[in-house]
């Protein structure tokens, strides 16, 4: 009973940080920019946060597959699919919703499968492979499209300016969450977790490491595709460079959401909360009049929050440290 | 069995050394075949100058890789030092004093990354990325004045700083190449001849064994990241003389090229093997490669993409982890 309670409590500690941060940020938003809580504001928030939310969900399975499973290529990957949707696909006559969804998800899967295959077969660390892909894709995007251009297909172009909540944006988001909920409960993802937590144990238990890792990247690819569609909807056009910054935001959101970089531990709910937090931070910062410095303040906040979240996560994960600290606090109180 | 595995390790290391050298020869032959004027004195001088910027920025990355970490904050520190120095000098603070301030701040920021990541070894990359981003954002805010964003800073760069990177100096090559040579020699000597240097190899090879041998691993870890930031700041300040104006994005190319240079130079990214001597070859390899790519009139973006593709096979050669089957 006791140990069951303990393990339950421990499972939930990773969500404490993102929930608390969310509460603080919601209060700040209510004070600084109450427009957020109107139908219009919420709708803007939804499409504004959606690319990051789905992008973070995408790299969550990769973090679970660990070790050091940080996908640094997510930003340029979303940008590449954005360019494909706006510039390349219309050239071959693909503009309908079903076809665009299929192509974007297909591209996402294709990219992730290549990364996954290299990581699984050559056994090179995910960080190094995705670092190389960041460089490759970032360069490729600018070669494909030197300047921002084009406009999204009609049905997608007005996603960024919808004014009622029951919009395709909401349906796509809810659909993605349902998909995640279903996928994350499969035996397959349980195997991915085992592999991430301890590859040796997984191997000895008969988990086939190569297909499992590539499979984790296939799941990631689906969400990369969905995130790119949201990003295109938000932007309404194609931009070769703006998307690269999603890498830092998504990794930060992942860490705030309590994912452990050693592998095996990451949650979809944590990722969604973390991404919402990141979006709220930039929203709250946006209500201050920083003028030319606005983007720099966002950099400072994102970088700072990333480091603090890492420290808090490490603290919560380390029971010894937490216990010692609690004891020290008690002693301090007593001496007073 | 032990002898066999030792022989294989030695061979593997020598293989790495040969590869960086062979690559340089191949690239130079390729360069002289495809780029007209490749062997001209101007071209060689320019190549050395460009290499010296990367070389200085890579010193820290090589040390970090030796202890099994990677520093992604180098690019940001280069940019931050670049704009901070010009702003300080423009604010009327004497040049020498400004340089010292920037160096001390860089050491402090690097030390901070080191302190934070020393308990989070698995997340070093993310820690340095976070610290770097926050630092550059903060410096950009600090140097911005009313109506002028902090991304670019204008001001007067002293003549001697511009002279550091001048190709027409009386000694034939740009003085900053000499600076690089001196720093490189010091780094190599430091790694081979001092107990701290040997300690870095020890902790990169086996953390626990190093601790048992009373190597102060935590202090050395922090020291290495501090040195890395200082070297990045030196590179950033020298680049100020080269470009003549402050630009926060000046370090962007160094985010990945420093890692690529370390990889080509055969330093294992998991730590314990390698050094700076071969990294110099890696730096030269990359510089010649970039000259060749520009010779084909490829854009900066295309060069970036090719560099990304190049890292993959190198990583496949150098930084593979063993199959779990081997670890049971």
3D architecture notes:
The complex is a heterodimer of chains A (336) and B (328). Chain A has 336 residues and is mainly α. Chain A has a single domain (32-335), classed as ABC transporter involved in vitamin B12 uptake, BtuC. Helix content of chain A is 77%, strand content 0%. Chain A is built from 14 helices and no strands. Chain A has helices at 2-32, 39-65, 74-91, 97-122, 126-144, 154-157, 168-184, 187-197, 199-204, 209-235, 246-256, 268-287, 294-317, 319-335. In chain A, helix 3 (74-91) packs across helix 10 (209-235), helix 3 (74-91) crosses helix 11 (246-256) and helix 11 (246-256) crosses helix 12. Chain B is mainly alpha-helical and 328 residues long. Chain B has one domain (38-318): ABC transporter involved in vitamin B12 uptake, BtuC, CATH 1.10.3470. Chain B has 13 helices and two strands. In chain B, strands 1-2 form a two-stranded antiparallel ribbon. The relative contact order of chain B is 0.19.
Q: What is the class of chain A in the CATH system? A: Mainly Alpha
Spans of chain A of at least 5 consecutive residues whose pLDDT stays below 50 are none
Overall 3D geometry of chain A? globular
The total of beta strands of chain A comes to: 0
Which of globular, elongated, flat, extended, rod-shaped describes the shape of chain B?
Answer: globular
